[in-house]
Amino acid sequence: MVTHMLSTAEHRTDTVIDAAIAEFAKTGYLGTPTTSIAARAKISTAYVFKLFPTKEKLFVAALDRCFERVVEALAEGAEKAATQAPADVLDAMGEAYADLIADRDLLMLQVHAQSAADVAEIGDALRRGLGAVTEFARSRSRADGPEVQRFIAFGQLCHLIVTTGLDDSSSEWAAVLTEGIRH
Fold this sequence. Notes:
globular; single chain
């Protein structure tokens, strides 16, 4: 059995991307200095720039990794579906996504990416990631377009509930939005 050992550069790249996800999730694209990512990764800022020549490229790498993890979680969820009926597969994917974003970093990174989508590279990466998630959900579940649209919309509603703290609201309108949603 041949196993692949990560080179030091590959390991550091992964470490920097993980640090970037955590830091960008806290303070967004504009509010996060590269120095804070370097400090979290325990490497020099110069080395971060050696791996990622611009902050945009680092944010895009973090966002790409985020969407890779989302698709992986959806795939794992689909395997656990009660049946292979499209609705059951989408439900299982939704449960897996809810488990994944229990760690809020991936969710908040997506939210911050939406707020920075006017930066061309980030907007492109966001659309590419959303496209990958949508296409995976459609092809794996074999659901029709409206079912997949509801699945994606439901996920965005989960994001809204979490980022606005609606779970803690006693308002009737908040109860309408949060009814039956686990995130």
